[in-house]
Amino acid sequence: MGLNAEIWKPLQGKILFCRNQAYYNYFLNPLMSEYIFKERNAGLMKILLTNTGPWGTGSGTTADGVLKELRAQGISAKAFFPDSKFQSTDMEQYYGNPETYHIAAFPAVYGNTYLYTFPLIITDPNPRNYQQAWTFRDMTYREINAYFNYMERELKALVNNFKPDLVECQHIWALDFLCHKMGLPFICVAHHSDQEGFKRDERMRNMALNSAQKASYIFAVSDYVREEVIDLYRLPPGKVITIENGYDQEVFKPGREDRQSLMEKIDKKIPKDMPVITFCGKISKTKGVDILLEANKVVQEKRKVLILIFGSGSLEEFRKGRDPDKYSLENVVVMGHRPQKELASFHRLAQMSLLPSRWEGFGIAALEAMGCGIPVVASGVGGLKKIAAGRIVPPEDSRGLAEAILEILELPQSNYQELCQQALSSALAYSWKSRVDQRLPYYEEAIKGRAL
């Protein structure tokens, strides 16, 4: 295929003869280089992205972001994951696009074994699963065997049709093992929840260890996760590469919102001048929701604010067994799992976003809020220590969280705007394009069989 005239015209007269092809490509006009790279890869490299669960989680967001950017760069890519077919407003994006998303449907029956839903790695709630869904640890040996046989059958059907050159597996866990069994070159992405599963589930440990050691490379979503992976799976440091996550910069961006129309989506009368604060994450101890509610008790005594909780899980379930005198639900509204565009609208309306996690592999939710031009108050754990712009507080410190919230609320407008700009500038460095550009050399090495 020849050069498109629109691409060629601005380059005429700017290309010099050079015998060294690598030097030539490196110093070539960036527009020309991008064109050549797309031409070289279009239709040649096929990448399959797998995940242990569907969209709506950090790993699901990663798989989606990478897939879309690969396609934008002219590289053929598809995704494979299980799902329980729960109704949601964003369901059509996936089920209505079977050429891109191959979904292993649950409930499923393999042999005589009934699998009521897909299993989770850890107990944290999943937006596409039951409130008390089983984990791999909860399954019997018969159920685990049925799960692997069913997923292998579904994966083989896709592989035989798509014929991928390489598989990128989200999590060092189950599907990586199947890729190795099927003789497919694969790269694992470590998100930290898989490392937590490795520590807790002895039956899956050898399988996960085998997956890590047989992978061409491991992409770790933060330096923290990289060190954890090297230690847990006994891997050579050169095999584990830190490639941090990105976020959707077309969705999560600054802008003006109509407060009245957004407030109508909340079943609660809110004063016009009440500050809005967002939290996006699973309603779980892992994400520090208990710490948030304890901090809210302190905050509401000094300043009335509206806290909107976006994410899966039940606050009522979460409150069971907790001392009601230690926390407050005043002005707290659970919004549940919402489409990204709606979440972005509420971020743009908010003064700040909170991430009081006990542990966090990376923290895409921080980037999404910052990308909308608001600061975050986050625990100094995992990847958050590096990426969060706003205030960093110690984990499990509800008093420190409350003080940081109040401090931002009381900033002079000029100082607050400066903090917002800092948050936006920090987030913009994390595009999915830059994350995919980092991946491509490792994809090529893995496909050529020269990986460690």
TrEMBL record:
Looking up CDD domains in the UniProt record yields:
GT4_PimA-like
Which superkingdom is the protein from? Bacteria
An example Gene Ontology molecular-function term? glycosyltransferase activity
Q: Does the keyword Transferase apply?
A: yes
Keywords attached to this Swiss-Prot or TrEMBL record, sorted alphabetically, are:
Transferase
Q: Which ranges carry the Glycosyl transferase family domain?
A: 267-414
Every copy of the Glycosyltransferase subfamily 4-like N-terminal domain together lies at 151-250
Bilayer-crossing residues are none
Q: Which Gene3D superfamilies does this chain map to?
A: Glycogen Phosphorylase B (3.40.50.2000)
Among Pfam families, the record links this protein to:
Glyco_transf_4 (PF13439), Glycos_transf_1 (PF00534)
**What is this protein's name?**
Glycosyltransferase family 1 protein
